[in-house]
Amino acid sequence: MTAAYLYEGLRTPFGRYGGALSGVRPDDLAAHLLRSLAERTGVDPAAIDEVVFGAANQAGEDNRNLARMAVLLAGWPTSVPATTVNRLCGSGMDALAQASRMIETGDADLVVAGGAESMSRAPWVMAKPAKGFPASHETMYSTTLGWRLVNPAMPAAWTVSLGESTEILAGRYGIGRDAQDAFAARSHRLAAKAWQAGFYDDHVVPVSGAELTRDESLRPDTDTDKLARLKPAFRVDGTVTAGNASPLSDGAAALLIGGEREAERLGRAPLARIAGRGAAGVDPDVFGIGPVRAAETALRRAGIDWHDLGAVELNEAFAAQSLACLADWPKLDPEVVNVNGGAIALGHPLGASGARVVLQLARQMHRSGSRWGLASLCIGVGQGLAVVLEATS
Prior knowledge:
Strand 3 (50-54), helix 2 and strand 4 (82-85) form a beta-alpha-beta unit. The protein has helices at residues 26-41, 66-73, 91-105, 162-173, 177-197, 224-228, 262-266, 290-302, 319-327, 343-346, 350-368, and strands at residues 5-11, 15-16, 50-54, 82-85, 110-118, 124-125, 141-142, 249-258, 272-281, 309-314, 372-379, 383-391. It has a domain at 5-122 and 247-391: Peroxisomal Thiolase, Chain A, domain 1 (3-Layer(aba) Sandwich), CATH 3.40.47.10. The strands form 2 sheets. Strands 1, 2, 3, 4, 5, 8, 9, 10, 11 and 12 form a 10-stranded mixed beta sheet that branches. The longest helix is centred in the middle third of the chain and has 21 residues, at 177-197. Helix 1 (26-41) packs across helix 2, helix 3 packs across helix 11 (350-368) and helix 4 packs across helix 9. It is α+β, with helices and mostly antiparallel strands.
């Protein structure tokens, strides 16, 4: 067994729903990053043993194996194999986990892992009629987010919306509206500060033909007073609003993963070692606490504890969801969490977010001189994933 290392990573700016990236297909977003990653690192695409990309939808232009389409559209050799994985919001991190296992077992030397999602371009779908020439009306379903074409055998309590599930968590953990809005305002404030300081400049690459150079959902002037004026989105008397939840987004992220020997071939030192991985399942109606046990598993497998962490990235699907996880991690210093903003400000293109948080973690570890870092995120239908990184310099 050899160790797996993160050598480089890039992402697009994340566009808002119907915004600057809405005219770009998800396979083109992925292909753009493959080309950009090869240009940045100088790696010969023919040397890539596998491409693993995550995509949560796969109902429209991202069907037919998004990763393979990206390889072909990028102009890479047809000899480069590719596969697409789907663990909903965790797809990009699942791609990284699979890539690192390939390296560790010797099945590959260099793998590109990542994810892409265009929530703007997610299609409407309908079930195939049970018989020809139906006389009744048919129902169309949006595939942008959440349940559709639900199996009637599935318990109704498990098929509530993600927002309703977050309201359940907020009630269970006693997380009020003020705390959620304060968490959301912090995300925007820190993201704006990080962009201004140049933190994102070295790993966010614009998309050709789209006039977008930074994350489109970021609102630098957001504060708790403005957030307090927004109406609840899921319950009349609820606490979850559009302002303290992550937005629908478009974007992609890609990571170059390899073994220790690849440093010489690439002519660069790795950013970090993939030191631990963890996955967990929870009841679907409280999906937001999925990261709790996943992170604890990843830390145990890495052989470290909470006090060792110098940086943490927790994807902010919802403010209440993130605060619930932090409540179950009492040993974690909240001041090291998402110090450059999170998904509430940056955006949450489902298939790409897992790769984004890992890349952002590695960059923050390098910036702060931290040896250990944790990236984690919740997943719809009740799961969580986590990855521990160890700095290599």
